[in-house]
Amino acid sequence: FRLSETGQNADVELTGANQFSEAIRVTGVDGSRIFAVIIDGTFSATLTLQYSVSAPGDWIDALAGSYTVPTGISYDDQLDNQIIYYRIGIKSGDYVSGTANATLSYSSGSQTGIARVTAFTSNTVVSAAVLTAFGSVAATSDWWESYWSAYRGFPSSVAFYEGRNWWAGKDRVWGSVSGSFNSDDDETEGDSGPISRSIGSGPVDRINWLGPAQRLLLGAEGSIWSARSSSFDEPLTPTNFNLKDVSTQGAGRMAAVKIDTAAVFVQRSDYRVYEASYDGGSYDYAVSELTGHVPEMGEPGVVRVAVQRQPETRSHFIRDDGTVAVMILDRQEEINCWVDVETDGIVEDVCILPGTGEDSVYYTVQRTIDGATVRFHEKWSMESECVGGALNKQADAFVTFAGAATGLDHLEGQEVVCWADGVDQGVFTVSGGSIGVSATSGLVGLGYEARYKSTKLAYGADPNAGSLLCQKKRVSQLGVIAVNMHAQGLQYGPDFDTMDDLPAIEKYARVDADTIYAAYDEEMFAFPGDWSTDSRICLKASAPRPVTLLACVMGLEANMK
User: Fold this and answer.
1) Over the stretch 261-300, which tens digit does the pLDDT of each residue have?
2) Pairwise CA distance, residues 535 & 558, whole Å
3) DSSP labels for 94-163?
4) What is the pLDDT of residues 407-459, one digit of tens each?
5) Residue 207's beta-bridge partner residues?
6) Contacts with 294 (C-beta within 8 Å, 6 or more apart), sequence order
7) CA–CA gap between residue 425 and residue 544 (Å, rounded)
């Protein structure tokens, strides 16, 4: 609570050098400038009265302002019509011993004190810690309660924007003094002063995030708000601050991520994803859904979000079941693609840091190893590390080794894959923290699969002949275009239970099973497709064998009867 009282008092207990009272502000003319200087106690020291003109800071010793014994005087500086600040204390070198109690008491002006209530006794009695000294202990009717407290609640979101530290909670938003992130002093005047505004429209149960985009965005559970000054987008000030409702979709209880001038956020359902981006037509932000074609992608609920910018923009959405939905978004190429990521365990958190060439992506993963629950911080490999070679870093929770494949206690009892000296060594079970492989360089980790299943295929026949989707058809041939592909790294088939390897014969010669194609663009080969109204292509790659698939083409036959 802040209390303001008539009159000013600065009390201080001085027990050493370089100790001074708070300042009092003296104004007016003649007798209205007189204030009392009171000193008592047992001490051996010299107390000095100091003044500063117009504002506290540049302190000067007052004439006849030195005291070595208890004193009680009225002091008149005779500086009519000037604003002078006074303080009293002991300068360096002027203290010997004892305690001096000094008071500056001025009947004019007012003094504001601040106290934090620490205990409640009754409706008229509380205990409080004094944060800023009061002018007196007399009652006053001029008081203010702080916005934030354990009783009133605290802000639920924070962000830096336009040189201010912004806080928001319930139906209110606060901006700090401009250029002073830890000051909300409401006595600061002018455009640099703090901003405190109510949204004034509801319902606003909670503001879940602040988005410092081209404009300051507020993600409330009921609406998305845009803070603007005017159509010219001048900086926000205490007198030039407006909130506009741009969507009633509402925001989930997790931070939004900034992608250039847009904010990507999870809707209050916790599994649909939206983007708030600037709309040149309305000169304000507008909201569009990014999960429109796959509304189930966020189920059973998103709990964490982080964005990766290199080598491409990927947003990682950690879901409630420990799996991850990764969104690849490229407006220039008109790409909005979603990929499921799962591991042998539960992904609990994600952190993304800038990196050289590619951003560094870290997952916190909970796994069950040798009957015990453990947690690992695991870093995504870079794409340049997943193209084959002596070390092909495609395995989960992997470690590298040179010589014997030891140091695998974190994978004790697990079935693992091993890549060593440029070759897939196969599948092993870790026992005693090792597997039976020795190599110049290699890695061991948990294997995983990358799967692709096409949509239901249609045949480009005469549409008058019947439904293109429902007529019987079969995929008879398949062609693959790829780079950095292991000769046995890709399997294909009509479903994931019926899979074939890539052809073992190319250009009338047997292919070495460990070959890695820098580029692959061979003739089409037979595909084991059956006649069906639901013909599809399924592709599967398995770690640690590299595959970078660029495209595939198919030969499709249709039964026109």
Assistant:
1) 999 999 999 999 999 998 887 788 999 999 999 999 999 9
2) 10
3) -EEEEEEEEEEEEEEEEEEEEEEEEEE-SSS-EEEEEEE--S-SS--SEEE--S-BTTTB--SEEEEETT
4) 999 999 999 999 999 999 999 999 999 999 999 999 999 999 999 999 888 76
5) 220
6) 338
7) 9
